[in-house]
Recover the amino acids of this structure.
């Protein structure tokens, strides 16, 4: 028992040769955000507030694909999405297609708390943001030179590009793979937290895919796919959005705990194993303060800590092996 | 041989008629035929029917459901795959103005139509979803194209409509979808300053006998919830399951509001075991991941279709109001709801066919 927190900055084919200038800032960011979350939990903040706070920090940090630093659509614009869920009440909120809202996760929280709905998208979500008076910014705030370059590379290669991956053509093994893309999302951020009373919450935020079609929605804002929390656990997932959606990955971790009686670690490993290799990663905490961080990709940017003093920031070395 | 059983809180008979409609009734129906290798189909036109709905409108709804079942049945008899049957039947429901999808969709606060739909094919769990459509005649077919022709699972406006143009699907002016009935409903909703459930009289009125004015959606009081979404689930002779759901969403909804219908796992789900389409209070369906949970309790708890439907309606909805239809790979069909009624119809290869409201 005791509080626990885990956060991620995306899973995918992260090469072990990732240059220090791209690795170190992310490690620093993860450590900083972890410290922010730990301090909030020590100050007895509710996990819902903690995950919102931590994801806001991750969104504000330009080295991850969410908020400032979001990757660009094929039109060179940003379209951000996010969701948040409270475990005990199962209340949740989600947003898609944001182009000016500085902190998508906070707008998702407002959808949850101030509207009769769960999910608002595009113009409606932007109009709601104006009504609520949340902080907004010009597109130039979100768009970084690195992402302009990523889009250029992706368009040159004529494919949807994964953040940290070299543009290689997918081998056409089956019918699904003949679709010209590499439909992955890396650099998505998320956070899960539990306090010493077993209150749980989860939040996830992303800019989506490099060179994505305008209007494409991934798993991040989908309750049950990218984000889920109930009385047993809180889960934030990341990876190839389409695989996460059809696998209802976040809900399934909770479902196998609930219906099969598995522990959090067993449940997380079981669910990741069901997703085709190279597609998914997730962080999760249980009501009793267990932590699971699993992925079937090369790596996942992640950090976690618990009340007993355990703390870790890592990229590779799957705990599955 | 067909076995029929049903269960509801309230008075009912075993032929599928709830003889006394009571508020908060919960009803599960289950039809079995023959086992493996038998097709089955179910359709719905929304859960949460006004107890005072005029008989003519009920009859009209039953006629449409019957026609859709017949279309599905003849396709199944011709060995059309489940996913194609689902698309075909939902197209028919969208094209008919009666229910809240395609033509006849509920109107947003701006008086426009914004439709959403999703479809899922059980065998490979492939899926497609669309939101915010204003000009696509049959959203379910665009969802199918997202599944098959795009690298993505879910597209929304304006990207979805650009994709629709590229794919050459039939497009029409937004006016095509707007019916006089719905213009009137929107006016009533605006007068009542609420999001209006299709057949519910605004709660400021006098004839809301069984209308609960204390409904909550996402924790906030709201007098109304989701209207007559349509859906279809099919299992074909090969045991392949598929599901599809399509809606115009809530009357007087905020532009940009997304409900459960396009959400895989909430409004629609299909896998190797079953196909499920849900309808009702969208927010309750999303947070309970209702469609996925029917499949999840079958997969992880080992329940059969009937038990799974019963379990989720009893345990997963909390205070929410919703209904669902489901088929299993064994050719079973089930429907369940905790609302006063659900427009629904189902048929099995064994010759069983039922169309009901209460």
């Amino acid at each position: 028992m005791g509080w626990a927190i885990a956060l991620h900055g995306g899973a995918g084919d992260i090469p072990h040769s990732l240059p220090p200038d791209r690795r170190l800032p992310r490690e620093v960011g993860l450590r900083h955000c972890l410290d922010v979350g730990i301090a909030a939990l020590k100050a007895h903040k509710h996990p819902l507030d903690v995950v919102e706070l931590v994801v806001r920090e991750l969104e504000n940090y330009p080295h991850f694909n969410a908020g400032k630093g979001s990757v660009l659509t094929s039109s060179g614009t940003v379209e951000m999405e996010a969701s948040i869920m409270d475990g005990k009440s199962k209340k949740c909120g989600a947003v898609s297609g944001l182009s000016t809202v500085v902190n998508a996760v906070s707008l998702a929280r407002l959808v949850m708390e101030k509207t009769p709905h769960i999910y608002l998208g595009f113009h409606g979500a932007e109009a709601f943001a104006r009504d609520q008076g949340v902080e907004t910014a010009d597109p130039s705030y979100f768009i970084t030179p690195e992402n302009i370059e990523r889009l250029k590379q992706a368009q040159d290669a004529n494919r949807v590009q994964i953040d940290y991956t070299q543009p290689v053509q997918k081998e056409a093994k089956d019918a699904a793979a003949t679709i010209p893309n590499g439909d992955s999302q890396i650099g998505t951020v998320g956070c899960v937290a539990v306090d010493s009373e077993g209150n749980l919450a989860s939040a996830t935020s992303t800019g989506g895919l490099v060179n994505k079609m305008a209007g494409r929605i991934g798993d991040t804002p989908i309750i049950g796919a990218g984000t889920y929390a109930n009385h047993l656990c809180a889960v934030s997932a990341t990876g190839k959005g389409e695989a996460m959606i059809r696998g209802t990955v976040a809900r399934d971790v909770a479902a196998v705990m609930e219906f099969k009686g598995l522990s959090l670690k067993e449940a997380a490993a079981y669910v990741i194993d069901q997703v085709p290799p190279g597609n998914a990663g997730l962080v999760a905490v249980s009501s009793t303060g267990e932590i699971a961080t699993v992925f079937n990709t090369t790596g996942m940017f992640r950090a976690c800590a618990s009340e007993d003093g355990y703390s870790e920031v890592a990229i590779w070395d799957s705990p599955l092996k | 041989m067909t076995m029929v059983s049903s269960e509801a809180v309230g008075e009912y008979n075993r032929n599928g008629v709830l003889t006394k409609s009571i508020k908060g009734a919960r009803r599960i129906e289950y039809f079995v035929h023959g086992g493996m290798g038998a097709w089955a189909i179910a359709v719905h036109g929304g859960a949460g029917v006004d107890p005072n709905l005029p008989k003519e409108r009920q009859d009209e709804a039953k006629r449409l459901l019957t026609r859709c079942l017949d279309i599905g049945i003849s396709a199944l008899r011709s060995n059309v795959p489940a996913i194609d049957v689902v698309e075909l039947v939902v197209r028919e429901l969208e094209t008919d103005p009666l229910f809240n999808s395609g033509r006849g969709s509920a109107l947003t606060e701006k008086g426009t139509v914004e439709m959403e739909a999703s479809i899922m094919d059980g065998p490979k769990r492939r899926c497609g979803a669309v939101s915010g459509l204003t000009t696509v005649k049959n959203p379910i077919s665009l969802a199918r194209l997202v599944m098959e022709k795009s690298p993505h699972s879910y597209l929304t406006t304006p990207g979805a409509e650009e994709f629709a143009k590229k794919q050459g699907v039939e497009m029409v002016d937004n006016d095509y979808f707007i019916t006089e009935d719905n213009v009137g409903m929107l006016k009533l909703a605006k007068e009542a300053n609420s999001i209006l459930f299709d057949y519910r009289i605004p709660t400021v009125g006098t004839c809301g006998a069984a209308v609960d004015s204390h409904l909550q959606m996402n924790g906030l009081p709201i007098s109304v919830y989701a209207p007559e979404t349509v859906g279809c689930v099919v299992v074909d002779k090969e045991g392949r399951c598929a599901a599809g759901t399509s809606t115009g969403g809530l009357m007087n909804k905020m532009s940009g509001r997304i409900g459960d219908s396009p959400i895989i796992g909430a409004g629609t789900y299909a896998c190797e075991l079953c196909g499920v389409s849900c309808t009702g209070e969208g927010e309750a369906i999303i947070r309970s991941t209702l469609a996925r949970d029917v499949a999840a309790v079958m997969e992880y708890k080992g329940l059969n279709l009937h038990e799974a439907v019963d379990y989720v309606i009893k345990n997963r909805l909390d205070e929410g109001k919703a209904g669902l239809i489901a088929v299993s790979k064994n050719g079973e069909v089930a429907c369940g709801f905790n609302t006063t009624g659900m427009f629904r119809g189902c048929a099995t290869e064994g010759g069983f066919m039922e169309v009901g409201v209460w």
